[in-house]
């Protein structure tokens, strides 16, 4: 087995960028956990970034630019491939120009107002594979800009060291290069997330943003909605609300032809076998329609993904009487269809709802909070509910993380601390934190009330529920804005950070499944002592992730009985030998002999990287507002 040298250890986010005070333009490598703001970024000088990823995992970094006293015009960038034991190229390498959203009021007091990086305009888009207008662009005098780079490691990529060069050019013969060094570890991340998700999407907002009207038909929206679903799946998320509410019921033959591949895991995604983890019933509360929906899902093998929300944050969005009526109807006419309710353990028990609910979804603020009745870890209060077979605990965040009414705020949001947040003008770490907390609390899924709430105005205004970006995670990629011929969704920087949190969850789960759940919990708890003390230090998240990868390597190296990440339950993945899979196992091709390096060598490098980094009045949420 070839040893991986220490300098080759990959790190998801950073090589240290030392300040450069030259007046000329600057280009440097930057990690994914830094938001490069035009007026608040000091030029750096690092010419290298280091990354780590499993197979079927995404690794991301940035190439930052500063105009200095001269500025740059006609900036272009390219990264043809990363080469090593294999080659990562084509659809597995995507460059984006970071677009800026101008905020006019801060989501949290004391936060800067102005331009924040968020929309990611692709060079070649991920869905239609068309050239877009990411390049060229200009960097004004004394301002900064950034390029985002996604690298997907295919499932069959041999582990080892890969290197690629991002070449940045501009008018006047300007050229700079940033080297990306990627260590692919001998592990396979599951293409379908182990953490279920239900990130809702309003078809009417997609209609408004792309068609300019409210009355799109199913046939008009179908191709657009599948593109949004593909984009979500490649970010390890599911958009479960894909029906138009009228007419109902849907024509099942058409539904199966369109959505069957996304529910079965055969759709054209870069993540191997990625499938939807949830599907929401959105029809009327009528016995015949509920039976029809449930029976069709049962016949197709999708019933485990189906669910119905029987209420919304009672007594606010729904009354308790309405929740009881809906839950009892579903139990009577659609047994097997999971019922979901956004509430907490107190309301669940005090109103006799436990027998009617399968998936309880409390606010993160109510699972580990600061308010009377919810102070501290409330996990033990769900033990009785979770003792019933088939029940699950999910989590969600809302404007309760920053303050819902105009002008309100959450006092826990202090510098370097505060709640998880999917807002544009919060730190990158805040958007990566939710999945760590879900793991800590034993959650099996995450709900988010909307992903396209302000899609029609996303490029210019996303202020909603007292926060910038609340309920909007996509941008409308219309040809008039991003070029090309086909309308596609455009990812936000926050969507990339949520994906990173989902991938962190896989490492937490992998270490736990491989035999050391206490270590996984300790790493997560040291990172976030409470749910409202999420650090803004992105390097701390990267260091924690590296500790998990190192521990996973220690637990699985030379131990054929240790469960492998992504392995089919009940099967044990044997170590790969010479790039081949041992007969009778479900391992992917690749191993120590597949190229330079292997898991044991990676562990030594991980120790080095971890050492290097170590130096380094409130209102409720509002699911009821999710669909106009």
Automatic annotation (TrEMBL):
Domain Glycoside hydrolase 123 catalytic, residue spans: 274-509
Signal peptide: 1-22
Glycoside hydrolase 123 N-terminal domain ranges (all copies): 116-169
Alphabetical UniProt keywords: Signal
InterPro entries, A to Z: GH123_cat, Glyco_hydro_123_N_2
Protein name: DUF4091 domain-containing protein
Taxonomic classification: Bacteria, Pseudomonadati, Myxococcota, Myxococcia, Myxococcales
